[in-house]
C-alpha cells in the first residue's frame, strides 16, 4: 500500500479532492477519528492506496505533521487566489521540515480569482524548494476550460461528469505553452546533466526521458511540481493521481528517511505510529504504518505484544491477520504504543523534532460538572495528552485545579466534546487566575513575643527581626546575628521556617518575594520554649513587619518569541505596545523562508489578549513561545484594581 497526506488551509477543498481521487476506480473505504482526521483506502492502477486528510485549521497543524510521518508523499491543496497564499505558509514550513516529497495542487480553478503565475509567485515566498509549473491552463475568456501538460505537450478539455477530452492546443495558447515549457526544462536541467546538455545542444528531449527526470527529482525532494484543477468538477484529478502513482517514492524511501532523521537502525525499523484516539467501549486505538512485513496480532512491537489489528479504513479484522509492508492498520488493546513514534520490535523511539507542534497559546481551567467528573478528570486528561501532543496538562498554582494549554478555541471545543462523548466527563472552562507577587519597598524592624499559657506546659518565644527588601530576582533569604545564646541554636531553623510561612501571603494578599529576614535577638524560656513557639513567633512577627514595610504589587513579565510570516511583522509593534509590552526586535527565521521571529517583553496578564490579537492579525497563522523573565512593580489605579479583584481586597483577613 502507498500512502499520502492531503493538507492545506481550510476551504481549499481538501476533503472533496480526497473523495474524488479515491473514487476514480471503485468504492473507497473511509474512517474518521474524533479529531477530524480521516483515512481513506482505495484502489488505483492495481495498487492499494491510503489518503490521510487532516483538518485545515491552523490549530490542527500537529495532526498534519504527524500524518507526514507516515506518508510517502503529500499533496498541498491551495486556493487559486494569490492573496491567500500566506495561509499555506505553515504547511509549506512543515512539509519542508519533514523532507516529504510534495505535489502542490491549486484547487478551485473553476473560480477565476487571479493568474496561476501570480499564485505560484506568492507561494514561492514561503518555499525553499522551487515551485515548478507542470501544466498551463487553457482558458475561454476568464474561465479555465482545460489544461496542457508541459512535458507531453498534450492538451485536455474538461467535460462535466466525464473524463477530459484530448484536444488540439488552441492557437492562442501555443506561445504561452512554449514559454512555460522552456522554463520547466530549464528548472529540471538544474538537477540533470544530460538534460542540460540536450538544451545546450538545442536538441528536443523525449517526453519519456523528461517524465523519468521529473519522477527522480520528486523522489529526491528537489522541487515541488505544481498541478491544478477543480476537485468539485473532477477536473485535473486523474492527472494528479497519475503523477502520484508514477513519481511518488515507495515506502522503502520513507523507511530510510525516518531511520536517518532519528538515528535508528533502518533494518530494525518495523513501523511508525502517527495517530491515536479513544473510542467508547473500545479504548485506545493507534494508527500504525508497517515499514516491514509480518506485523500481526501477538507480534513484538515496541517491547510488547500487539493486540488486535484491524483495517484502518473500516475497523474490520485485518485480512489474513497479517500486515504487509506499507499497510496502515489500527492497533487496538495496544496501549503501550505511543503516537507518534518510530517502532522497532524491542523499543519505541521519539519522533523527529520537526513533529513538535506549535506552543499552545490558550490556557483554561477545566471545571468538572459533578464530583464524579472531578474524580475522573485528572486521569482522563492524562490519557488525552498522550494522544494529543498539541495539548499540555498542568495544575493551577495555588488551587491545584486542572489547567490545560490548548492550541486555540477550536482545539478547546474538540477537547470538551471528546471528554463528553468518549469519556462521559462534562466540564466547563474559565480563565486561570492571574499570577501576581508582592514585595516590600523599605526595611522594617519588629520585636514580637509569643506567649500562651494553658493547662500544662506553656508556649514562649521572643524574637527581634529585621526585614529588608532584596534585589530583584534574589528571592527569600534568611540570616541571624544572635549573640550570647539569647536564642538557642536549635530554635533558629524554626524561626526560618516561620519566616518562610509568612511569605506565603503578604498584606496585599499575594505571595511575597525578594525579602531578607534577619534574626537579631530574642529570649527563650527553659521550660515553655519550643520549636513550635519560635516558629509561631517568627511567622507573626514577619507578618507584622511586612505590613509596615510599604508593600508593592508585582506582575510577571514574560519574554515572548512571536513566529509570523514576514508580511505581518509590521503590525507587531502596535500590538505589543497596546499590551504595554516592550519590543526587543525581530530577525528573519533562518529555519523557514518568509517567516520572522519577533521578540518582546509582555506582561503575563496580557498573554491571553496577545493570543487573541495575534490570531486575528495573522489570520490564525502566527504563534508564540514564552518564558518567564522577571517580576516588575505595578502602582496606582491598576495595582488597586488588581488587589481588589484578586488580593486582599477580595479576600479580607
Automatic annotation (TrEMBL):
InterPro entries: EFG_II, EFG_III/V, EFG_IV, EFG_V, EFG_V-like, P-loop_NTPase, Ribosomal_Su5_D2-typ_SF, Ribsml_uS5_D2-typ_fold_subgr. PANTHER family: ELONGATION FACTOR G-LIKE PROTEIN, TRANSLATION ELONGATION FACTOR G-RELATED. Residues 433-550 form the Translation elongation factor EFG/EF2 domain. It comes from Rhizobium azibense. Residues 552-642 form the Elongation factor EFG domain. One of its GO terms (molecular function) is GTP binding. This is Elongation factor G. Catalyzes the GTP-dependent ribosomal translocation step during translation elongation. During this step, the ribosome changes from the pre-translocational (PRE) to the post-translocational (POST) state as the newly formed A-site-bound peptidyl-tRNA and P-site-bound deacylated tRNA move to the P and E sites, respectively. Catalyzes the coordinated movement of the two tRNA molecules, the mRNA and conformational changes in the ribosome. It comes from the Bacteria. Keywords: Elongation factor, GTP-binding, Nucleotide-binding, Protein biosynthesis. Gene3D superfamilies: 3.30.230.10, 3.30.70.240, Elongation Factor G (Translational Gtpase), domain 3 (3.30.70.870), P-loop containing nucleotide triphosphate hydrolases (3.40.50.300). One of its GO terms (biological process) is ribosome disassembly. Pfam families: EFG_C, EFG_III, EFG_IV, GTP_EFTU. The keyword Nucleotide-binding applies.
